[in-house]
Specification:
It is a single chain. The chain has 599 residues and is an all-alpha fold. It folds into 3 domains: 159 residues, Butyryl-CoA Dehydrogenase, subunit A, domain 3, CATH 1.20.140.70; 45 residues, Orthogonal Bundle (Helix Hairpins); 291 residues, Orthogonal Bundle (Neurolysin, domain 3), CATH 1.10.1370. A 3-stranded mixed β-sheet has the order 3-5-4, covered by helices on one side. Helix 1 runs antiparallel to helix 3, helix 18 packs across helix 20 and helix 24 runs antiparallel to helix 25. It is globular and about 75 Å long. Bound molecules: zinc ion. The site of zinc ion has 4 residues, from helix 18.
């Protein structure tokens, strides 16, 4: 392995082209200044008030348009910063852009309350006017919140209480990220390995069982030492959800969390029900794992290690061609967008000193949907590339076909397009590979992806709901209680093939998502939606792929996520998509077992 490149030594064609946002840093400064100078416009609008539909249109457009320029200012600085985080010029540009955002948000914070001041009937009649049609859905959403908006005095009090209510989550984050550290894990040769939140799962994937055991025990024993404190931060977080939901007159904290996106609670319950009805499939997979690893006792630190050892090399050029070819079921136009992205430098491909780690798709209205990669020549990276292009083409279509205020998409659907692309790529590769070992490797990756995204996140969702309902019925969330609930769920999910110890019961303490208020279930629903949609497209006609593109990828947030998905062909209010996803897992498991037998 050579030294990492410096940023300035990257070949230009391997980097993203940000000049299409701002030609130069000087142009960025001009845009920054423009936004700054126009912040005071908000005051003028606030003082003037909204007396007519013309006033309404004017104020909504002003906020939207300034918001677009601001987000371009932010995105440019953010991408420049990420390409080399040690560059102090871009550090400072990004932090200036962030503080400009805060100023903008505060200047325009009058708008929603001002819209609430207009009585419902009047606001509805404005929204019906043709000139306001681009804002009609936004206004409808505001109207729906009315029942949960309190008096001015109470709203002010709640806003001030936010500082206190956020504290449990902030305390946890600081403890988990800054204060908590672990001893090194030790492998079978006595060598030390740095153990952090970031390296933990990689260590659990090691083929060295001594190292896996060491990482697992060291990590959870440490969490165990602080379990009473961490039970208190999690309990405090749940308290804050329960308090806010009660104050705003929701039925429960889950009701509040889901109604933000207009998701019926049945969607959540059905997910948990269907997954529970199919836990025998996860048990079967766990049995198979025990058998393939040749272990007398399968433990929780044997769950992550790959079952197929295969060095599956792919260069960036090869990956690019596979991704384009793999998306053929979506048609020429979709593939042309991919080519446009590859040819016009949407992707920042290789690692360099100081570059942000990992991968993402970013950008905003009026910019290219950029992709950051830290390319390595392997199959995982090829899937990441397909995944990020899934996000990027979704953004591309939505930004081209919706107005700025509706061009984003909600978290509930955010991972659908990306997971969809992974499914298409896997299908393409599977059909085109002649090497059984590579096929096994692919299937293993798919099974693992499914376990981690559908089974595991549903287990999290079940845990999260359980601790909220316990709290709502007045039960204290002590460390013992949390260990008991988590340990029982873990046993139920992984089944009898695993020999359990007490340490895994403490896993709740290391999961930051439990501080995100009913967030995790969306990984499982998103995956299931993608599984259904990709199956429709893979087995369907041009009409089916057009429907996916037109009704889903182009729709942004122009409707409620459940409605958008329904129009695209998947009804998340029924059990069917989750059942189909389970079927998909079963088929992969069958294929996997078959290939092993044939070996
Ligand atoms: Zn993603």
């Amino acid at each position: 392995m050579g030294e990492l490149l410096k940023r300035e030594d990257q070949r230009v064609e391997d980097t993203w082209d940000l000049t299409s946002i701002f030609e130069s840093d000087e142009k960025w400064e001009e845009a920054y200044k423009e936004v700054e100078d126009r912040l005071s416009e908000a005051d003028t609008f606030r003082e003037k008030g909204i007396q007519s539909s013309d006033d309404l249109l004017e104020v909504l457009e002003a906020e939207r348009d300034l918001g677009v320029t601001l987000s371009q200012v932010y995105v440019y600085s953010h991408l420049k910063h990420d390409q080399d985080t040690s560059n102090s010029k871009y550090q400072s540009m990004e932090s200036r852009a962030m503080s400009l955002y805060t100023k903008f948000a505060s200047a325009w914070s009058f708008l929603t309350p001002a819209l609430m001041q207009i009585d419902e009937e009047t606001l509805n009649s404005y929204a019906e006017e043709d000139k306001l049609k681009e804002f009609k859905f936004d206004l409808e959403k505001i109207n729906k919140q009315r029942a949960h908006v309190l008096s001015d005095k109470e709203e002010k009090l709640l806003a001030q209480a936010g500082l206190v209510l956020n504290n449990p989550g902030l305390t946890y984050a600081i403890f988990n990220n800054a204060d908590l550290s672990f001893d090194n894990a030790v492998d079978s040769d006595g060598n030390s390995h740095v153990l952090t939140q970031g390296t933990y799962i990689d260590l659990l994937k090691s083929s060295d069982r001594t190292l896996r055991k060491s990482a697992y025990e060291t990590l959870y024993k440490k969490y165990g030492e602080y379990e009473n404190t961490l039970a208190q931060t999690l309990s405090g977080e749940v308290d804050s959800h329960v308090f806010t939901a009660e104050a705003r007159g929701y039925k429960s904290s889950r009701d509040q969390a889901l109604s933000n996106n207009h998701i019926p609670e049945e969607v959540y319950d059905q997910l948990v029900d269907v997954v529970n009805d199919n836990l025998h499939l996860l048990h079967r997979y766990t049995e198979l794992r025990k058998e393939m690893l040749g272990l007398d006792e399968l433990t929780m630190y044997d769950i992550y290690t790959p079952l197929v050892d295969e060095d599956f090399k792919v260069t960036y050029e090869e990956a690019k061609n596979h991704v384009i070819e793999g998306m053929a079921p979506l048609g020429e136009e979709y593939q042309d967008i991919l080519r446009e992205g590859f040819n016009n430098r949407w992707v920042d491909i290789y690692e360099n000193k100081g570059k942000r780690s990992g991968a993402y798709s970013s950008g905003t209205y009026g910019t290219n949907p950029y992709i950051l990669m830290n390319w390595q020549d392997n199959v995982d990276n090829m899937f990441t590339l397909a995944h990020e292009f899934g996000h990027s083409v979704h953004s591309y279509y939505s930004r081209k076909n919706q107005t700025a205020n509706q061009s984003g998409y909600s978290i509930f659907v955010a991972e659908v397009a990306s997971t969809f692309n992974e499914a298409l790529l896997a299908d393409y590769l599977y059909k085109n590979l002649d090497d059984d070992k590579k096929k096994l490797y692919l299937l293993n990756e798919q099974l693992e992806g499914f376990r981690g995204t559908v089974f595991r996140q549903t287990m999290f969702a079940e845990f999260e709901h359980k601790i909220h309902t316990l709290k709502e019925s007045g039960e204290p969330l002590t460390a013992d209680k949390l260990n008991e609930v988590y340990g029982d769920l873990n046993k139920k999910y992984y089944g009898d093939a695993v020999s359990y110890d007490d340490l895994i019961s403490k896993e709740w303490a290391r999961i930051p998502h439990f501080y995100m208020n009913y967030y995790v279930y969306q990984y499982a629903t998103g995956y299931s939606a993608a599984a259904t949609l990709s199956e429709i497209v893979l087995n369907g006609t041009k009409e089916d792929s057009d429907r996916y593109i037109n009704e889903f990828l182009k729709k942004g947030s122009s409707n409620y996520p459940i409605e958008i998905l329904k129009n695209a062909g998947v009804d998340m209010t029924t059990r069917e998509p989750i059942e189909k996803a389970m079927k998909f897992f079963e088929e992969k498991l069958d294929q996997f077992e078959q290939l092993i037998k044939n070996k």
